[in-house]
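Collaborator request, handled under Task 6.
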Amino acid sequence: MFRSPSIKPAVTLGEMTKDPLLDRTGEPEGFLVHEGEAPRINATILSLVRNNELEGMISSMKDLERTWNRKFNYPWTFFNDEPFTEEFKRRTRAETNAECRYELIPKEHWDVPSWINNDIFQESAKILTEHDVQYADKMSYHKMCRWNSGMFYKHPALKDVRYYWRVEPNVHFFCDVDYDIFRYMRDNNKTYGFVINLYDSPDTIQTLWPETMKFAAAHPEYLHEKGAMGWLTDSKRRPEHNYKANGYSTCHFWSNFEIADLNFWRSQAYEDYFAHLDRAGGFFYERWGDAPVHSIALGLFEDASKIHWFRDIGYQHIPYFNCPNSTKCKGCQTGLFTDGEKFLYKEDCRPNWFNYVGMN
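Structure tokens returned to the collaborator:
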């Protein structure tokens, strides 16, 4: 089924007096395939999860199966740096009629690269901890960020997979989604889908943008003329973030939810970019996360119109929400951004995205 588009002007910073989620939300425009209309395409739901996160993973599965996947039965692919227990396999299989795949991450994808100096890491972690940077001294967290940034798509289990939906333990989905998300991505030529758009902590990524600019200067051929550079470099809304991050707004797609085309990460532009960042050492000497790394790459190397805000998918990862105004949603307060402290509202970077790109 095709829904014809209507042209919506970008929302400027001054014009966002009301959250667009308060407006009635329906299915996205474009080609949509509903249950029973066509077979599945080559895609998977993807989770990096430990055995001790089983209860949280079960909770996430229950929500996504209830709201979407029971209609389409896309496979679940679970990744771990340790073998999954039989209990983990048994209980996750019980939550879905879809195939479940359990994959061990190769040591060479997870281990600290040979060029990282442990003494420098320890000293850097100490300094970051003194600046209240969360997880700075946890090596496993740094390994996870690096794997999610540039190693996960190299796993043999994903070799022939085109699209994925990343799902973490202890997240919630609130709205019935009746169309095939992966076919929507393919049939409407979308590269990446997000729900929440935030500012990052500039103390974690002080050299990420300077290193990115070094790479961009060496490879201008990779920069897309219709990218989202304004969103990446805005200094009006949070000038202190831009200043501390040396030219980067710190705006990023919160990647605990991401629906994406794996071919973007496999592209020469992204592979070269990740290799440059990896050698620079910031995944360990700072705390570069996969969210800003993925977001910067998308903003520089992709046509921004191929990045889609899934406003119709109700979602929560503590402490933030995406809560649309839809009769298909239950248990999610329309327009709620956070149920945490009020100061968290300033972390919402959607106004910048709407200003520079629009509501694709």
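The cover message to the collaborator said: "Residues 236 and 242 are 9 Å apart (CA to CA). The two ends are 18 Å apart (CA to CA). Please let us know whether this matches your experimental observations."
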